[in-house]
Design a protein that fits this description.
By secondary structure, the protein is mainly α. The chain has one domain: Up-down Bundle (Growth Hormone, Chain: A). 80% of the residues lie in helices and 0% in strands. It contains 16 helices and no strands. Helix 12 runs antiparallel to helix 15. The model has no long low-confidence stretch (mean pLDDT 86).
Length: 397
């Protein structure tokens, strides 16, 4: 085991953090720029743009159940390395995406690798973090994705410039190669069940289902933002709209360093409420912005909401299951996120096409009222019940 009873920032954790950041940066280079590529180069319309994100998220969703099973059954590192290697190869194939159909095919297969990497990467991080500091450690590890969200979308937009997609895809591939090299150096705890019999119960963990419902609906506005924020800012005549992602990441960073510690000491309910409420306010505001600084202010608010919700709810999922079921718990958690992003980006693409992007963001704020109510009615007591059972089992072991 590479962890000590109280240390989070071990060499392996730091290597994993940097590798994950590079991989996520490669991903986020393309996330806001591919819709622009599709509109400007492939002449697609707004409802088709949603499919670029949607098919990626849905293909990730399809693979996650198997990820949870193989991560728990056969160990983390081998699965993670293979998926990262294939992810890297596929990144280079965007250079040949000359039609919308080819682009969608690449997105499907790339989504398979993304689903495996994010499930495996988060599970490895949880294995490297001391048990009593899990919320704090998950919050720190989440900063790898936060920094990628902050820097890569704007960086990708600047690299793309006036439709310079060759440089964009080449640099994204280079980042993926670097991530793979660092991942090879990480020493991962050898945690596996050796169970070879596959079934639904091995792929998912039903204890996490209610949390998954919160994340499914909570992912809808994120899908809308990543698909349409640059197109929206361009339509409003706001220059440098890609800076929204940097301000969004600032919001995430503001809360990430604090949320985990609060979660470990006081539990999740207060911060879940705050995170969802802040995001709802940000989405309502987003539907009315008409200039640069209000748009950036929304980015901070939405980032704070995301920075609260994601690590808190993921930590809840991990706290409810024994160590050998973390892969399945993460698969259940991220499957809900993928399904929400996939379904949300496609459905909201039609809303944007027929009713306008501003109205679509307003609808997203209304949608978030559902997980807010659902959490306090059906999730809170369910969570504490299963945490108590896990703690009791640990004491009796």
């Amino acid at each position: 085991m590479t962890t000590t009873p109280d240390k989070i920032l071990t060499k392996d954790f730091i290597l994993h953090f940097v590798s994950y950041f590079l991989m996520a940066s490669a991903f986020y280079f393309l996330l806001p720029t591919l819709p622009v590529y599709a509109v400007n180069e492939l002449q697609v319309n707004n409802n088709q743009v949603g499919y670029i994100i949607g098919v990626y998220a849905l293909s990730a969703l399809l693979i996650r159940p198997f990820c949870g099973y193989v991560l728990d059954a056969y160990g983390r590192k081998l699965v993670y390395l293979w998926s990262l290697a294939i992810f890297t190869v596929l990144m280079g194939t965007y250079l040949w995406a000359s039609t919308f159909f080819i682009l969608l095919v690449i997105r499907v297969f790339h989504g398979f690798t993304w689903g495996t990497i994010t499930t495996g990467g988060s599970t490895i991080a949880a294995d490297l973090i001391p048990e009593k500091r899990r919320g704090e450690g998950i919050g720190y590890f989440g900063l790898a994705m936060t920094f990628a969200i902050a820097l890569a979308p704007y960086g990708g937009d600047q690299i793309m410039g006036q439709n310079n997609f060759f440089n964009l895809f080449t640099i994204a591939t280079g980042f993926s190669v670097a991530a793979l090299i660092l991942a090879l150096l990480i020493k991962v705890p050898n945690i596996k069940t050796g169970e070879t019999k596959i079934g639904i119960s091995k792929m998912f963990d039903k204890r996490v289902t209610r949390i998954a419902i919160v994340m499914f609906t909570g992912a809808f506005p994120y899908a809308a933002i990543i698909s349409f924020i640059i197109i929206y800012s361009d339509a409003l005549g706001i220059k440098q709209g890609a800076l929204f992602f940097i301000f969004m990441a600032i919001g995430v960073a503001i809360v990430r360093l604090l949320v985990g510690k609060i979660m470990d000491k006081r539990g999740p309910s207060e911060i879940v409420f705050i995170g969802l409420a802040v995001t709802i306010i940000g989405l309502f505001w987003l539907s009315y912005v008409d200039s640069f600084w209000p748009l950036m202010g929304v980015g901070v608010l939405v980032g704070m909401g995301n920075g609260i919700i994601m690590p808190t709810v993921q930590t809840m999922a991990l706290n409810m299951v024994p160590i050998e079921r973390r892969g399945a718990a993460n698969a259940t958690f991220f499957s809900a996120v993928d399904l929400g992003i996939g379904a949300g980006s496609i459905a909201l693409g039609y809303v944007a096409e027929y009713y306008g992007i501003a109205y679509m963001f307003f609808i997203c704020g209304i949608i978030l009222l559902f997980p807010l109510v659902f959490y306090f009615l059906f999730v809170r007591k369910h969570y504490y019940k299963h945490v108590a059972l896990i703690n009791e089992a640990s004491l009796n072991a």
